[in-house]
Specification:
The protein is of the alpha+beta class. It has one domain. The chain is about 60% helix and about 15% strand. It has 3 helices and 3 strands, in the order βαββαα. The protein has helices spanning about 10-15, 30-35, 35-70, and strands at about 1-5, 15-20, 25-30.
């Protein structure tokens, strides 16, 4: 996962950071990245928390779909 400082993110969008939809990068306001160490750590932790939360939800959904397919006696039409 890449951490990418982005100038004026806070000024332009009033956010300290965000994750890309594929979770391969976290963009962080450059001032936060360079000058506000504790806020930078919080922002990274917050964005990583989104990744963990979404992965857990996807795992639960996959398990639920597999269980439903077992009950109906069907093989799932996809690979995990």
């Amino acid at each position: 996962m890449d951490i990418i400082p982005l100038p004026n993110l806070k000024i332009a969008f009033d956010i300290d950071g965000f994750s890309t939809s594929d979770f391969n990068a976290i963009y962080v306001d450059q001032f936060v990245y360079e000058q506000r160490y504790h806020r930078f750590r919080f922002t990274l932790t917050h964005e990583l928390g989104h990744k963990v939360m979404i992965l857990r939800m996807l795992l639960k959904l996959a398990l639920m779909l597999l269980e439903n397919n077992k009950m109906v006696g069907q093989a799932p039409p996809y690979k995990l």
